[in-house]
Amino acid sequence: MITLDALNRLSQDEFREALVGIFEHSPWVPERTWHARPFADLAQLHGCLCDTVAAADQSEQQALIDAHPQLAGKAALRGEVTDASRREQSGAGLDQCSAEEFARINALNDAYRAKFGFPFIVAVRGHSRASIITALEVRLARTREEEFAEALFQIGRIALFRLAERVDVADNRR
């Protein structure tokens, strides 16, 4: 962990490296956010990171969405996802899917990608396999624009959980 005070004092390269993985395979997010320092608290840091994503052009946002692995997908089974993604998916029990659950999630993932052109993204913390399946079913009824916005929202939630694990704000003394 790194304290918020220490994070505020880092060079741009160090800041980017300290926050690598907060946004899946997208170091440009912390790199562009560095200029907004100093951050008074975790909420401000998170808000500025999300503002950076919101200010990015649509192709960069699309690349950010595309950088996320498919839930319970082949990459996860082969261990080809980031440690953070593996822990998050495991925490939701996706590594313990029955054959039926695995087949259902993969069929829904395939339908989702076919309809929207990007992977289904949900911040899995607090979800179960059943609630993830339900979310996939519900979100398949939405428009691409709604789901694009929802994917970015979910990425922001994932980033907040990851920040809370990485940045120690208890020692933040200004």
UniProtKB/TrEMBL annotation:
Its EC number is 4.1.1.97. It comes from the Bacteria. One of its GO terms (biological process) is allantoin metabolic process. Keywords: Decarboxylase, Lyase, Purine metabolism. It holds the Pfam family OHCU_decarbox. Pathway: Purine metabolism; urate degradation; (S)-allantoin from urate: step 3/3. It comes from Dokdonella immobilis. Signal peptide: none annotated. InterPro entries: OHCU_decarboxylase, OHCU_decarboxylase-1, OHCU_decarboxylase_sf. It is an enzyme of class 4 (lyase). This is 2-oxo-4-hydroxy-4-carboxy-5-ureidoimidazoline decarboxylase.
